[in-house]
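Researcher: Structure prediction, please.
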Amino acid sequence: MKILKTLIVLPLWLLSISLFAQFVGKPFPEMETESYDDVKISLPNDKTDKYTLVGLAYSKKSEADLNSWFSPVYHKFIKEEDKGLFASFGYDINVFFIPMFTGAKATAAGTAKKKAAKGMDPRLLPHLLFYKGKLGPYKESLGLDKKDVPYFFVIDKEGKIIFATSGAYSDDKMDEIEEVLEE
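Model: Predicted structure follows.
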């Protein structure tokens, strides 16, 4: 049974690597975002102090998969920052989850920001940014072809993509992210 699982999972894993390999080494396109409290942040330009993990989602159908990343990412990359211990434990990276409001849905961004400010765990709020604008340039430059899944990118200090994946959280994906951060 284990061999059968490997035979099924391995080709899917290799396919996901090959789909995103074309983005590794390329610059992450400039993205103007806003925090829940209306602070403007341009990625990657405003966050070149350290590596950055960015999660993007542009449809309601991708929300469950995006949410599957919150707790593991919080515990791996953010929790120690909240305690002020990053100097001695964990990873020192920027982490941002970005719902993308495009087209007719762009008008809903303000409502979503207000809802987040009231209903989200306050420890995650500084890691939530909102994009309002055109989707086309990002679909093309980042390969955001499937609207039903979130996309994740690790960006280096120079603004280049060093890792990309999509879909729901998995331990294997987290292991891959940790590997690129440790290189």
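Model: The chain has one domain: 2-182.
Researcher: Thanks, that helps.
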